[in-house]
Every structure is written in structure tokens, then in C-alpha cells.
Amino acid sequence: MIRILKKVIYVLMKLAGLTPQIVEVEPGTKLHFWVPTETINKTNGGQNEPIPPRKPVVVLIHGFAEDGAITWIPQVFALAGKYAVYVPDLLFFGGSISDKANWTIEFQAQCVARSLEKLGVEKCTLVGFSYGGFVSVKIAESKPELVQDLVLSGSIPPVDETTSRGLLERLGYESWSEVVLPTNVKEMKRSFVVVCHRRPPMPRLIYRQYLKTMFNNREQKAELLHAIAIKDSDHRRPKISQKVHFLAGEEDKIFRPEDIYNAIKRYSKPFTSSTYLDDRRIEDAQFSNGKSSLANFWWLFVGIVRIVRSILKLMSPT
């Protein structure tokens, strides 16, 4: 069932005008991307040759729960008409792989930036959700000529060890692997209470299939999680010159609106261009009810089932 739903989402991505591409960053490291179909030109030899996009570019970087397509399918449909939308899978998610034992956010950022350059992208707006926000900040720091604007949704990078321990204690966990890499249905349901605004009412069978299908590359992902929190002694303000827009979910249990606001105040000087980062009331920022990509995934499934049932009902003899 979950595999079928993934295929449905991939078909929807193509209907939205995106095409899957594999970008070789370096030998042994390949990133899977969804790119605008009009930016790919097949040569006589059958090779795909990138064409620079004509529309403004938006790059959507997913969080830790899912790959790019499953996370961003609603936003892709909303944006693809006006923008050239690029959706990468970060390393060890979706179709992206590497034989390098480099688990740092810096390496993730380097791979995405190099891939965008190979795809002909010269300037873009980066949108990073959760873990993707950490990666987005590193890209904006290292490639200021590439990143025009930055949107951080449910993310307050960087996070030091003290902040990380405080977040885990508040949530009642000992490690981030317990939160986002559950090993059984019971752990998964508990995790969804934290990562979802409203836990989707899925039958136990779907939970089991989801565990089996979606939580691959566990060892690599556990290493990625371990590398998120930096040492307190290494903590510094990001050197960001771009405009930055924070989005926070009113019901977000990990990065609460007050956490986002404290980050805004703390880093108001490096983020000089954004009115949302000035020392103002929290209401000045935009907030949306936070939902995990799994919730989107499930409600999409429910919607498809309802459509099919309606069609079958219309086709049935009266």
C-alpha cells in the first residue's frame, strides 16, 4: 500500500511538470533531484543536458521524516506554475546515495549546492523544512552568490549540544533517533504525537508497512542525527547576508513559536534584511499549523480513496 502511494505521488510530481534526475556530485556520491521538465534537454546520445531555468527558482529541501517528493507535493503544485521548482533528496533519503562516511550538514549542503550548479541554477530562493533548514543555512553561508532569499520552516539552526539536550528533555526522549527513527509501531505512534500536528488515524497495518518501507538507511541516518548538534564551544552566529523568513507552526512541539522568536532575537544582526527578524512582537512573523509530511502523505491517500469510491459509485448501475 505504501509503495503504491509513493508511486502515486511520483506520478503527481510528473503531472506538476517535474522530472526525476540523478546528479553525480563526485565519484560515489549521487543526488536524486526533481527538476522542471523544460530544463532538461535530451541529446542525440540519449544524455540529459540541463538548460538554465527561465522562471525564478525555488529549491525545496525536506526534513528528516521523508524524501523530497512526499514532503513537498502540495507546495510543488502550488508553485510550479510561476516558479522553476527543484526538489532534492538529501543524502541517504529517497534516491540519493554516497559511499563517503561524511555525516555533516556541511557535506549535505555542499552536495546540494554543487548539484544545483550542475543543473544550471545560478540564483534561487531556498526553502528548508526542519533538518532541511539546517542544510539551507549552510548553503546560504557557503554560496551567497547562489542563494537570494532563505525561508526556514520549523527550524532554528544552528543547534548546540545544550539546546539539543533541552529539547529532548522537554519531549521526554534521550536521543533524536528515538524521535524520528522508530523501530516498532508503538514507538512510531508515540513519535507521531511529537512530529504531527494531528496524528493521522492510520490502521496498524499501514504503520507496519510504513516502518518497513520508509525507514531505510537507519545506520546512516542515525549518524546524520548525531552530527546535527554542534559543540557548545563551536557555536557561532551564522554569517548570513540574505533575507530570511521564518515560519513556525502554532502546534509545533519541537521548535515552538517562542523558540523561533528567541532565535529571531538572538540572530537579528546576522539576518539584517528581513523584517521578520527584527526585534518585534512574535505576531509579526507568519505562522502555520505544523503538520509532518506523513500527515500530508496519509490525507492524500484518504483523498484518493474517496475519489475512487465516488467514481465507482457513479459507474455502478442504479
Automatic annotation (TrEMBL):
It comes from the Eukaryota. Keywords: Signal. Residues 1-20 form the signal peptide. Residues 56-266 form the AB hydrolase-1 domain. PANTHER family: AB HYDROLASE-1 DOMAIN-CONTAINING PROTEIN (PTHR43139:SF22), SI:DKEY-122A22.2 (PTHR43139). This is AB hydrolase-1 domain-containing protein. The lineage of its organism: Eukaryota, Viridiplantae, Streptophyta, Embryophyta, Tracheophyta.
